[in-house]
Amino acid sequence: MTAAVAISAVHKRFGRVRALEGIDLTIGRGEFFGLLGPNGAGKSTLINIIAGLTRADAGTVAVLGHDVVNEYRPARQALGIVPQELVFDPFFTVREVLQIQSGYFGLGAANEAWLDELLQALMLSDKASANMRTLSGGMKRRVLVAQALVHKPEVVVLDEPTAGVDVELRKSLWEFIQRLHRHGHTIVLTTHYLEEAEALCDRIGILNHGALVALDTTQGLMEQGIGNTLCVCITTAEPVTALPSALEAKLKERDATRLVFQLNKDSDSIIEVLDSLRTAGVAIVDLQTVEADLEDVFIELTRTRSEVAGH
Ligand code: ADP
Ligand code: MG
Questions:
Q1: Is pLDDT above 90 for 211?
Q2: Which residue's alpha carbon is at the smallest distance from atom 17 of ligand 1?
Q3: Which ligand has the minimum distance to the alpha carbon of residue 42?
Q4: Whether residue 43 has its Cβ less than 6 Å from ligand 1
């Protein structure tokens, strides 16, 4: 089956900056894919290459089987791109922005009904005649989303659509994107809100310094490394001086009367830890457990090599 987006051995440099260092990634049709990574990781560069806005130095990208360079038009036709930057001509109205984009895809008056639907779905109907310059940042963001969808593209790529957007709009954008996904669109979303990726994406790729450092289902990623651990925070009645060595090995942090153990979900048992503490004569006054979340996994995977080496 043809992939929605097939990326093969893509490299890109900007002068001395290596923005992408050999990306191989296939996104299936109908997937909800999350592309995560810290600032400067290369997410927007990769999206701009998919969109045909930036040329890769090496490697290929195809959208629904169409090479984004050699078959630019059909590739672009299959894609809706919501760019990270809000760039508009301030003197156009919302409807004009959408009409111009429609025209770009060769769609004329026949597309007006769809534009109305888009305006309504994105709660922009009453702003259709407003000039772009009068809109708030959140509304401009919604116009960008509508603009990406004028030609009903199968693959929708959103570059940080919820960055700097208030909680309410973020939630309504989530619902809107989920609706697109339910209707069969392939979604590629970059975000730095980890809880957003955790809630929405079926599969996640993590970029760091231009390389894909993780690629897995969201669930699979959450069970990797630190994701497969559980922190047990124990408050003791008295300061604890000595612990059995088996427990000492599982200690993550300690204060006078506070012990934090990091347990492996598969091989460690809280009951055994509590039993050993009791045997060692430790009186427990409080116990809390904290599961690692996607944020912990992300931080672990995107620490730079020098941090890992302790520099
Ligand atoms: P992200 O979207 O993950 O924050 P970008 O793809 O925007 O990352 O940037 C990746 C790296 O490439 C960064 O170091 C950035 O400074 C650099 N970069 C991106 N675009 C350009 C450009 N047009 N000229 C020079 N450097 C760029
Ligand atoms: Mg970016």
A1: yes
A2: 19
A3: 1
A4: yes
Closest CA to 51 of 63, 39, 36: 63
- At 195, the pLDDT band (50, 70, 90 cuts) reads confident
C-alpha 65 – ligand 2 centre gap (Å): 25
Atom of ligand 1 nearest to the CA of 207: 3
**Cα(23) to centroid(ligand 2), Å:** 16
What is the rounded distance in angstroms from the CA atom of residue 152 to the CA atom of residue 92?
22
pLDDT digits (tens, 9 = 90+) for 101-141: 999 999 988 899 999 999 999 999 999 999 999 999 889 99
Q: What is the pLDDT of residues 50-76, one digit of tens each?
A: 999 999 999 999 999 999 999 999 999
Q: What is the pLDDT of residue 311?
A: 40
Percent of the chain at pLDDT above 90?
Answer: 76
How confident is the model at residue 309, as a pLDDT? 45
210 CA: nearest ligand 1 atom = 10
| C-beta of 12 in contact with ligand 1 (< 6 A) | no
Residue with CA nearest ligand 1 atom 16:
40
* Entry field: residues in the chain: 311
Measured by CA distance, the residue closest to atom 7 of ligand 1 is 44
